[in-house]
Amino acid sequence: MLAELIRANQPCVALTGAGVSTESGIPDFRSAGGIWAQYDPYEVASIEGFRRDPERVWEFYGHRLAALADARPNAAHAALAELESRGLVEAVVTQNVDRLHASAGSRDVIEVHGSIGGAVCLSCGNREEDARALLPLPRCAGCGAILKPGVVMFGELLPAAAIDRATALAQSAGLLLVIGTSLEVWPVSGLPDETLAHGGRLAIVNRDPTPYDERAELVIHRAAGEVLDGCVSSMSLS
Q1: Of the residues 126, 151, 176, which one is the last residue of a structural domain?
Q2: Which of 29, 71, 108, 231 is the most exposed place for a label (fewest CB within 10 A)?
Q3: CA torsion angle for 228, 230, 232, 236 (degrees, to 10)?
Q4: Averaged over 155-165, what is the pLDDT?
Q5: Mean pLDDT in residue range 3-17
């Protein structure tokens, strides 16, 4: 059924969230264990917290970067990259900051929440692509200021170019394939409305219910990797 929807409703755009990353062993922000239990996210993941205590913020992000060091793309990442290579997925819009979609081979990835791998200078705008190499306290090579992690923090707006592209893709999508996100974080949670308002359809693959389940053509409450791998396999056999 999912394979048929993708084929019949082109272009297909994927929208992914934390439920895809968790299958690579990466805990989501609401996880109760590990490093998340040691820090208040609003202190170490907000722009106010960064301005107040950048050293503590980078201590936290150092742990996050270490946790990501061994993370590898899973079956969901691989399936989306394969669907893109076959011309069946136009682009991947992701709320994840781990760069695993790109690692799996997806070429058109819109990171609406930024990337944890990089860093940016709030003073002069300089960007660094490899924050890990600058730990424990990354500083700007141009002006010496402490760099900010390359993710969108609480209290910051999403990058205008990224959210504008994501909105345009959602509006033109014949099918918005929502994977591993509960669709609770604005403005990304509004992308399904853009698709529906412009005549497109929704398919949702998420372990838990979402606010859009009743408006979707197909809802599958199972693991993303299992579902997408099966979808690609069924296309190969047909």
Answers
A1: 151
A2: 29
A3: 180
A4: 93
A5: 96
With helix as H, strand as E and coil as C, how does 103-122 read?
Answer: HHCCCCEEECCEEEEEEECC
Q: 31 and 21 in one domain?
A: no
Q: Residues 63, 77, 113, 198: which is the catalytic one?
A: 113
In this structure, the answer to whether residues 202 and 231 fall within a common structural domain is yes
pLDDT of amino acid 43: 86
Domain range holding 146?
27-70+116-151
Are residue 120 and residue 136 in the same domain, yes or no? Answer: yes
Give the domain CATH number at 34.
Answer: 3.30.1600.10
Domain end: 130, 151, 172, which one? Answer: 151
101 assigned to active site? no
Please answer whether residues 220 and 230 qualify as being in contact, where contact means their C-beta atoms are separated by less than 8 angstroms. Answer: no
Q: How far is the C-alpha of 164 from the C-alpha of 206, rounded, in Å?
A: 25
Point out which residues pair with 54 in neighbouring strands.
Answer: none
Global pTM?
Answer: 0.91
The reply to whether 94 and 80 lie within a common domain is yes
Whether residues 65 and 129 fall in one domain: yes
Contacts 24+ apart (CB under 8 A), 228-237: 228/75, 228/76, 228/79, 228/80, 228/83, 228/179, 229/75, 229/76, 229/78, 229/79, 231/2, 231/3, 231/6, 231/79, 231/83, 232/79, 232/82, 232/83, 234/3, 235/3, 235/7, 235/86, 235/88
